[in-house]
Structures are given as C-alpha cells and as structure tokens.
Design a protein that fits this description.
The protein has about 600 residues and is an alpha+beta fold. It has 4 domains: about 220 residues, 2-Layer Sandwich (Heat Shock Protein 90), CATH 3.30.565; about 140 residues, Ribosomal Protein S5, domain 2 (2-Layer Sandwich); about 90 residues, Rossmann fold (3-Layer(aba) Sandwich); about 110 residues, Four Helix Bundle (Hemerythrin (Met), subunit A). It is about 35% helix and about 20% strand. It contains 19 helices and 22 strands. It is elongated and about 100 Å long. The relative contact order is 0.07. Keywords: ATP-binding, Chaperone, Cytoplasm, Nucleotide-binding, Stress response.
Length: about 600
C-alpha cells in the first residue's frame, strides 16, 4: 500500500496560515467542531439536492451526522453520508487553503488583536483547518457519490499531506482527529454535547453523539424560521445567524415573517452589523438559502438582488417541488414573486432603521457602497434605494441624506450639487468648492467607486436634477449670495495665448467667478462627462467627451500679473503648462510630466 501513497507539499503561504490557525485562535478552540459539523451538513444537503436531480444516489432513509469520541485511542471522528470527495477533490479542497487570498488572510490573522482573532475563522474558507487547533494529525477518508473507490487524505499540518487508496463501504466522509494532549476536554461527550447545542442546534440534519456506547441525539434540528417569532429568543436568532453566515458579530437587524395567501413561504433574514472579512466585490450574488418544505435546495437562487447581497438567511416555500432544477428556478414565476416580496421587506426594514441616524450610520459605513449599486442597476427600486443613501457634505458634519439636502437648498438653487472623486479628504479641500462655499451652497462629496455612475441613472430626486459642480459653474450666478471680491484683470490677450500654448490638452480656456483663493481650476467640457467619469474613461484607455476646460480666476494675483505681461512674456507657454499641472494636482491627478514639473518649480523657487 505504501507504494501508492502520494505525498504533496503545502505551499509556503499555506504553511504560514496553518501555523497561524493553530496558534492564534487558542481561546476559541471549540470552533473546530462547529466548522467540521457544518461542512458535513453541507455535504449531506448537497447529496440530497443532487439526488433529486438524478446526479447522485439517494440519501439513506435515516441520514445523519455521527460524532464519536474515543478516549482510549485519543481520537474524535465526525462521519457523514453526504456527497463525499474524489481523489482530485480531496487534493483541491484540502490541499489548498483560502485560494481567494491566502496571504491577505494570514497577514490579517497575524496582526489582529487577540480578542478579534476568532472572528476571522469561518469567513475565509479555512474552517476545516481549525481541526489542527486540537489535533496533531487529521485523517479524512471519503468516497464520492457514484464512485466505487475511496481515498484517504492525511496530514499533521506541518507542510505535507498524503493521499492514498482506502476503503469505505458507503458514500460519505469520515474525519478522524488524533487529539493533542492538551485537548482532552474535546473527548468528553458532555463537552461535545454543549458545543453542538451552542453552534449546531439549528442544523436540520440529525446529529448523534456516542456516549457510553450508545448513540444519542445531539441537536434539536428545528427549522427556526418555521417557528412563530414570539417563540424564538434573541440568543437563538444570534446563534442561527452566526451558523449560516459563518460570522461572529451580532445581527444588526432580524427579519422573520411568514407569507400566506397567493404565496406561502417563511423567511428569516439577517442584516449583519459588521462587514464580512472577504470583500463583497468578490461575488455579486445573493447567498440567501432556498429551502422547499424545510429541505435545503440551493443558495444560488438569487432570492435577493446583488445590491442586497450582504443580507444572510433562509427562505422556505411550500410552492415549489422538491425536485426543482436550477433551470426551473430561473423561470418559475413563484420564485420571482418571492424575490419581489423579500426585496420589499428588506427595503421596508432599512427605511425604518434609517429614521435613527445614529443607529443607521454604522450600517451605511459597512454596506452603503453596495446599496448604491441598486440606484445604478435596478430601475424598479431606484427611488426607494435613493432615499436610503447617505453622503458627506461640504456644509454639515456626519452623514446626510438627499431629502435633508433638498430641505437646506438656498434661494434660487435649482439643482442638487455633487463633487465626485477618489479621496474624501481631498474633496473637502477641493478648489471646485470655493465659489459654492462663498455663496453658502452645499455640495455632497462622493468618493466611492460607484459614485461616478449612479447619479446619471437617478437623474433627479424630488424633482431636483443632480449635477456635478465640475459642470455647473454657470449655475452660481442665479443663486443669491456674496460674489468674488477684488478687481478683475483684463484677460483678452492672456486667455488666447494660454489656449495656444496648451493646444489640444484643453478644450477651452475661460474666466470664471467660481474661484476665491485658487488661480485655476478644471471644468468638464460642455457636452462631455464630468471630470471623475472622464478620468475613469482615460484610465480605461477610452477617451470620451474631449479634454477638460481650464478656468482662470481673473482676480487672483498670479493671473493679474500674467495678464499684465501677456503681450510680451516669452515664458508664457511654459507658465501655461504649469497652470494646467496645478489645476490637475488640485483635482488629485498627477502633473503631465512629473519630473519636468518638479524642475520648473525648483527653478521658479530659485529665481524667486
């Protein structure tokens, strides 16, 4: 047999991560059992679903998970009759850890304060490896549904694993943990029972625990979402949320209801109170679980739109057949109605929560960027989502809504003004704001990646158009307020010479009244996108809408000096380039030629 044993090396990052998992999560060692039981339950659910669609043999009539402690042998075995794994799947799933970002996870785990470390397990695809917190060797024997042969994966978690042929009479998986000397507590049936009750009581697959030679039920297996809300405690909601979300935070909101009538379904949904460790941009699909008559079907039914993908939970319906296929899920009108009802319920909850600005702020900071996607892509719910948006502002502290902004608009102000960029701190200091601040006109500051796209889709809010101030300089003249002070220079000669020097780098050079302290500023071309969208298009290699406009402050000392010598100044062409670079830098862009710009500034300082 030894000749057929294959030895494989974990990658360097994997070895580092294993070391961190083993040594950095000591205070929450019991989590290993929850992770292994959850994986086994998922395997059973997957086999059940695939058997309904003819892709796997049917489950045994009394399918269950078995937890078997053996103090004499110092082993703990978790067995299931689930889908099983082939040789290739053993290597793929157990020989590769956190493929979506091993190094990032390892760094975060190493740097996290002690009290925060447990929250990282279960959120990055490394649950199985929590076994090495309590075991110095782990064996996994598995037989894939439909296969005749079984395989054994084995490792001590120190850099290598082996895969060899094995024997298993039935489909499923056995995980045998050879326990460490300091992990004897996890061989005590009473301790194991307490852990299962804490973490896995809501798993609908029966779990048994071997105690005194007898198999005894270890979990209640209750479909919590089927119970009346009045019969469920806050602790039960919390534990169930943590189980399905693989999270350790408290749910920020819990939605539990039953729909009866034209639709018959139960739903238990949770809005998290903390952002998940894995970026939500990695997958844009909702993972709310679909059950039919308590039986798990899939988490890929798209029960909520992508812009609500942070919501976790279960929807259980009586109105679909148990053998529903994924193709049927895409076409059935029943599911479309459930989606609409669930989406409406979540929106209603968010509207109610948004009335408390202090309580709503943490949610917005975690999930606001995702929610904005609904304004961009969902025409049906666009106005509802827009009412939930919150922004930083040039005029008020904290977060503000579009409705609050409209309530503060000045006399003569016809539009909602926004400024979009990459850095919120830079936006607050942008010269683009000078004229608007001088007249007391509020501007919303937008710095998320999606902010360049959704305002155009929304168009208006409460009949007020939404306009970028990089396109709205002319609007200021219609708004009551102070005007710029000081004598304006005659720019008749200067502007054409600057335009001639800059050629096609700008579409126009013109005077402006919207600057107070700055000499120049960029503006969007009349028939093109705003400045932020133009930048995004340039970065993508797609020029659109022409070059920007360079606006000049005729009251600024520098501009007045340049205007006085415009007819004879032989260095004006070089100065024009400096002005354009200054305007670009004020908007967070690099000079056209950074090295040349640095030399020109140094020469100017030396000459001064």
């Amino acid at each position: 047999m030894s000749e057929t044993v294959e030895r494989h090396e974990f990658g360097a990052e994997v070895g580092r991560l294993l070391d961190l998992v083993v040594h950095a999560l000591y205070s929450e060692r019991e989590i290993f059992l929850r992770e292994l039981v959850a994986n086994a339950a998922d395997a059973v659910d997957r086999r059940r679903f695939e058997s309904l669609t003819g892709q796997a043999p049917a489950l045994p009539e009394h399918a269950k998970l078995r937890v078997v402690p053996d103090k004499a042998a110092r082993t703990l075995t978790i067995s299931d009759s689930g889908i099983g794994m082939s040789k290739a799947e053993l290597a793929q799933h157990l020989g590769t850890i956190a493929r979506s970002g091993t190094l990032a996870f390892a760094q975060s785990l190493a740097e996290a304060p002690g009290a925060e470390k447990p929250s990282l397990i279960g959120q990055f695809g490394v649950g199985f490896y929590s076994a090495f917190m309590v075991a110095d060797r782990v064996e996994v024997t598995s037989r894939r549904a439909g296969a005749e042969e079984a395989w054994r994966w084995e490792s001590d978690g120190k850099g290598q694993y082996t895969i060899a042929p094995a024997e298993r009479a039935e489909t499923g998986t056995d995980i045998v943990l050879h326990m460490k000397a300091d992990a004897e507590e996890f061989l005590d049936p009473w301790r194991l029972q307490a852990i299962i009750r804490k973490w896995a009581d809501h798993i609908t697959v029966p779990i048994t625990l071997l105690r005194d030679g007898k198999e005894e039920p270890a979990n209640e297996g209750t479909a919590l979402w089927r119970k009346p809300r009045s019969d469920v405690t806050a602790e039960q909601y919390r534990d169930f949320y943590r189980h399905i979300a693989h999270a350790f935070d408290e749910p920020w909101a819990t939605l539990h209801w039953r729909a009866e009538g034209t639709l018959d379904f139960s739903a238990l949904l949770f809005i998290p109170s903390a952002k998940p460790f894995m970026a939500m941009e990695d997958s844009r699909e909702s993972r709310v679980r679909l059950h039919v008559r308590r039986m798990f079907i899939t988490e890929e039914a798209g029960l909520l739109p992508p812009w609500l993908r942070f919501v976790q939970g279960v929807v259980d319906t009586e109105d679909l057949p148990l053998n529903v296929s994924r193709e049927m899920l895409q076409a059935t009108p029943v599911l479309a109605r459930i989606r609409k009802a669930a989406t409406g319920r979540v929106l209603s909850e968010l509207k109610a929560k948004a009335k408390d600005a202090e309580a709503y702020a943490p949610f917005w900071e975690h999930f606001g960027q995702v929610l904005k996607e609904g304004v961009f892509e969902d025409a049906e719910h666009r106005k509802d989502v827009a009412a939930l948006l919150r922004f930083r502002s040039s005029a008020v502290e904290g977060w503000t809504s579009l409705a609050d902004y409209v309530g503060r608009m000045k006399e003569g102000q016809a539009a909602i003004y926004i400024l979009v960029g990459d850095d919120p701190a830079a936006l607050a200091k942008s010269p683009q704001l000078e004229g608007f601040r001088a007249k007391g006109v509020e501007v919303l500051l937008l710095s998320d990646g999606i902010d360049a796209f959704w305002p155009e889709q929304l168009g208006t809010f409460e009949d007020k158009p939404i306009r970028s101030i990089t396109q709205a300089g002319a609007d200021l003249s219609a708004i009551a307020g102070a005007t710029a002070e000081g004598e304006a220079a005659d720019l008749t000669l200067l502007l054409p010479r600057i335009k001639e020097a800059l050629k096609d780098e700008v579409s126009e050079v013109r005077a402006t009244d919207r600057l107070v302290d700055s000499a120049v500023v960029l503006a969007a071309a009349q028939h093109g996108p705003d400045l932020q969208m133009a930048r995004i298009l340039r970065r993508a290699g797609r020029g659109f809408g022409g070059p920007p406009v360079l606006e000049v402050n005729p009251r600024h000392p520098l501009i007045r000096k340049l205007a006085e010598g415009a007819a004879t100044d032989t260095t004006l062409a070089e100065t024009a380039g400096l002005l354009l670079d200054l305007a670009r830098m004020q908007d967070g862009e690099a000079p056209r030629d950074p090295a040349g710009f640095a030399k020109r500034v140094a020469a100017a300082l030396a000459g001064g």
